[in-house]
Amino acid sequence: MKVLFIGGTGIISSACTNLAIEKGIELYHLNRGISISKRNVTGVKQINADIRNFEETQKILKDYNFDAVVDWIAFTKEHIENDIKLFTGKTKQFIFISSASAYQTPPQHLPVSEKTPLENPYWQYSRNKIECENILMNAFKEKSFPVTIVRPSHTYDKTLLPLEGGYTIVDRMLKGKPVVVHGDGTSIWTLTHHKDFAVGLVGLLGKSKALGEAYHITSNELLTWNMIFDMVADAFGTTAQKVHITSQEIANFDSEIGSSLLGDKTHSMIFDNAKIKSIVPEFNPQILFAEGIKEIAEWYKKNPENCITDPKIDALIEKLVTYKSKQ
Questions:
Q1: CATH number, domain with residue 169
Q2: H-type alpha helices, 48-180
Q3: Within 13 Å, how many C-alpha atoms sit on residue 8's CB side?
Q4: Tens of pLDDT along 211-255?
Q5: Contacts of 153 (CB under 8 A, 6+ apart)
Q6: Burial of 107 (0-12, 13-18, 19+ CB in 10 A)
Q7: Cα angle 278, 282, 285; round to 5
Q8: pTM score, two decimals?
Q9: φ, ψ at 274 (rounded to 5°)
Q10: Does residue 17 sit in the same domain as residue 140?
Q11: Torsions phi, psi of 181, nearest 5?
C-alpha cells in the first residue's frame, strides 16, 4: 500500500508513521523538511513541499498516485478546498484529521458516539473543523471524493504534558506553588496515548468501507482532572496544591485558554468506540495514563533542555490564585 502523510512528525502522526512502516506500508511524508523533530520517524520517503503553496505542491505531486492520503495539518476551509483539488483522482482514500472537540459542547447525552451532533459555540478551532468536515462530506456525496474523517480527542506522547501550560505546571508543583484546576476538578476526561491511537488510524488505511464515514479514536480510560493533576505530580515526585477556579473565570483572564476550556475540557467527555472497533478489530487501547505519565516524566528527566517554563502562563496562574484567595 502506498500512503502519503501531509505532516507526519507530530505528536499523533509520528506513532502512526512508525506503525505504518512496521506494517510494510510504503509511506511518504509531504512537508517542508526543515522541522527539527523530537520524534524518531525512520523509513519514510520524503517529498519536500509547502502544502500551503498550492501551485508548488500540485507540480511536485504531478506524477504521484496513492492508495491513501492523510492530512494531519488541515485546519480551515481553504486548506480542505485545496486538498480536494490536489487529490481528486490521485488517491483512493483521503483521511481528514478532525477533532472530537467538534462534537456538541456540552454534550446532551453520554457516551458520545459518531451520531452525536457537531456543534461547538465556544471554540473557533472546533467550528473550523466542523466546516472542513461538511465540505468534505458534500464532496463525497456530490463528487465521490473518497473521504474518511477521524476525530482524535486529547492525545499525547512522551514529549507532551497534557495540561494547559505544559512544563510550567510541573515546575510550579516542584517549587511547592499552587496550580489552577478548572471547575471543581471532577469532570471526566479521556487521555489517549499516541501508540494506541495509531492502531486505529493505521487500521483504517485502505478500508473502502470507511469511505464517507467518521470515526473517533480514543482511549477507554476515564479520569477526572483532579486525578490527572495528582498523577502528574506523583510521577515527578511531588504533590499538586490544587486551586479550583471555574472555566468562565479563567476565560475572563485569558480568552485563548478560556476558549479551549469552555470548548473542550470543561465538560465530561466519555466516548463510545464501538464504531472504530467494528472496522478495526485490533483497536484495543492498552496504555493507561499511569503508565504514560511515567514515560513523560522520564523523558523530561533525560531531556532537561525541554524543561521550559512560560512566564506568561506562570504570571496568569499567579493572578488567578490571587483572585481566588480574595473571594
A1: 3.90.25
A2: 54-60, 77-87, 124-143, 167-174
A3: 29
A4: 999 999 999 999 999 999 999 999 999 999 999 999 999 999 999
A5: 99, 100, 101, 190, 192, 216, 218, 269, 271
A6: middle
A7: 100
A8: 0.94
A9: -60, -35
A10: yes
A11: -115, 130
